[in-house]
From TrEMBL:
Coiled coil: none annotated. It comes from the Bacteria. The chain crosses the membrane at residues 48-68, 98-122, 148-174, 186-211, 218-240, 300-322. Pfam families: ABC2_membrane_2. This is ABC-2 type transport system permease protein. Keywords: Membrane, Transmembrane, Transmembrane helix.
Length: 329
């Protein structure tokens, strides 16, 4: 196997300086943000971490797609009719042996954001390149902003490719194209998933600013992910006690994973009409039928705002800490 030549720090810094001067101009008031985004994005898409995580998502996506397609075919064979919203069932359908694609994305997608951000700042410090970057015609805020934007761009491309690939294979297996309502719901699902993964990216960048070692930053990020993914529900059940619907529901919504799960269930299942406790009068007065896509978006608006707010808070804290940090050569 051929060994790739190692890029020397001096050559890398010269290339970054040329990109910054070409993209922003030394005398035009540019910040060098475009140069940082291009460099970080190139590192993300060519790194082994990205390739391993994408391969893991692809394998789980193909397994979930095959299980969902088999379930849909069995249902069609029994009833001799195409189920309603059959294309959405490719993403939400599962079996006792294998969960649906949405469950895998909920559990594994945060690792993508963590992998892209856990060494964003501390890795540069350990390689002693951060002070050299700031010595170039690049503003300090362009460094932290460029790392976050490059991570978001990599997340958007990865999730778009995953959803498009699953949809294309599902179309070939079933031969049923998505309706306009289903297409809009899948687009909304992709946007919401991007926001969800961007939160974990912002959290990982925050830990990379707080801690000096990349291993400590990665451990802190993974600990938060495991806490909310595996242990938070048990703590909520213990704290809620005899009030699992009222207090338990609000405690569960502190978790970003629960907010995301609530939102995707509503988006990908048009039969869901409410996300909170329902009284008997509301049940008797409700109309049967599916919920239009616009009403589903209104229903998940609080969860979406909550995820955006969490992402903004994490990135704002990391931004402030990074701007105030003393960086020496």
């Amino acid at each position: 196997m051929a060994v790739l030549p190692r890029v020397q720090p001096r050559a890398w810094l010269e290339r970054l300086r040329s990109r910054a001067e070409a993209g922003s101009g030394r005398g035009t008031g540019g910040s060098g943000l475009a140069a940082v985004v291009r460099k970080e994005f190139a590192d993300h898409v060519s790194g082994w971490r990205m390739l391993i995580l994408v391969a893991l998502l692809v394998v789980t996506g193909l397994g979930s797609l095959y299980t969902a397609a088999q379930t849909i075919r069995d249902a069609v064979g029994l009833t001799a009719a195409i189920p309603e919203f059959v294309f959405l069932r490719l993403f939400t359908g599962g079996s006792p042996q294998l969960p649906p694609l949405t469950a895998f994305v909920t559990f594994l997608a945060p690792l993508l954001g963590i992998a892209l951000g856990f060494d964003a700042v501390c890795g540069e410090q350990n390689r002693r390149t951060l002070s050299r970057i700031l010595a170039q015609p690049i503003h300090r805020d362009a460094v932290i902003n460029g790392k976050f934007l490059a991570g978001v761009l990599a997340i958007v491309i990865t999730l778009t490719a995953l959803l498009a690939g699953v949809g294309a294979l599902g179309l070939l297996m079933l031969g049923v194209p998505p309706t306009g309502d289903e297409a809009l719901r899948l687009v909304a699902y992709g946007v919401l998933t991007t926001i969800y993964v961007a939160f974990w990216l912002a959290l990982a960048i925050l830990f990379s600013v707080v801690f000096r070692q990349a291993a400590t930053s990665a451990l802190a990020s993974i600990s938060v992910w495991l806490f909310f993914s595996a242990f938070w529900d048990m703590l909520v059940n213990l704290a809620a006690g005899d009030d699992p619907v009222g207090l338990g529901l609000w405690l569960s919504r502190i978790s970003p994973s629960y907010l995301y799960s609530e939102a995707i269930v509503t988006l990908l299942n048009p039969l869901v009409r409410t996300l909170g406790p329902v009284t008997l009068e509301q049940v008797l007065g409700a109309l049967e039928g599916v919920l239009p896509v616009g009403q589903s978006l209104v229903l998940v608006w609080p969860q979406t705002v909550g995820l955006v707010a969490l992402t903004a808070v994490c990135f704002a804290i990391s931004y402030i800490l990074f701007m105030r940090r003393e960086i020496r050569a």
